[in-house]
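User: Hey, my collaborator sent me this sequence without any context and asked if I could get a structure. I don't really work with proteins. Can you help?
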Amino acid sequence: MLEIAHNVYTETAYTGPVLGAVNTAHGLLLIDAPIRPEDARSWKGTLLSLGGAVDRLMINLDAHMDRTIGARAMECTVVGHESMAGVFKNRPTTFKPQNNETGAEWEQVPNLGTIRWAVPEISFNDTLNIHWGKCPMRLESRPGPCAGSIWACLPDEKVVFVGDCLTPNQPPFLGGAILDQWIAQLECLLKPEFQGYLIVSGRDGVVPPAAARNQIQYLAGIRTWLEKNRKSSDPTAQVDKKLPDLMQPYQHTGNRLIRYQQRLRNGLISQMTHSHQDAVSLAEEKTA
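Assistant: No problem. I've predicted the 3D structure and written it out in structure-token form, which is a compact way to encode the shape of the chain:
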């Protein structure tokens, strides 16, 4: 566990997203949860060493399964964007992990067993301010990367947890993304409002502002490529042709390389399929 600002901590040791914790006078504000139950127990034990009040409130930065599978094991009230309710409504009440190839972290964890989701008990639409101490936390809706994407901002400490909005050292999850909105959020990180902030990526920990510029360029390139190929009748073939080029910024080997290739391939095919369907629908409307 690393203290990145006064009473603000990050943890990168567990499988899944980067975790956060803010120790306040009222208790702990937690950012996301480990995937594995045994990691949740270890994380809770680590948090006890911080002392202070015993209350805990956990914030899910989006509805991605890497973030939400382990939420119930943290045994505390969960906060999330109101759109997460729709996501959980479309998931079975209990979930038994299957063999998938989306490149998510949870797919690499054996023997997860049956999952019972922790639906957010507190939700919001635009912003939510949490006053558990002298320095408030502001949760902000930041749509684009995933359903229910939010940021957790600590203005007094100048720290912002941005989840999967910024992932400089591994490919982004593109499956459910809206690229125009995503790029707009990254551009916000470069504005004076966030000058001097520590930016915490949900996959890589503290990252420099320059990472936002690089990801804007990367996503903009994907957006341009999708626009050129949106009418393709064979999305899979187009994606397989483009994949080596898009993997060049990420120098990994072994299982991690395979997983990241799967992540990009799955996300691009999803984007291509939706683009093709939209193009067909538009053509049908014009001929009707």
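In plain terms: The radius of gyration is 19 Å. You can pass these tokens on to your collaborator as they are.
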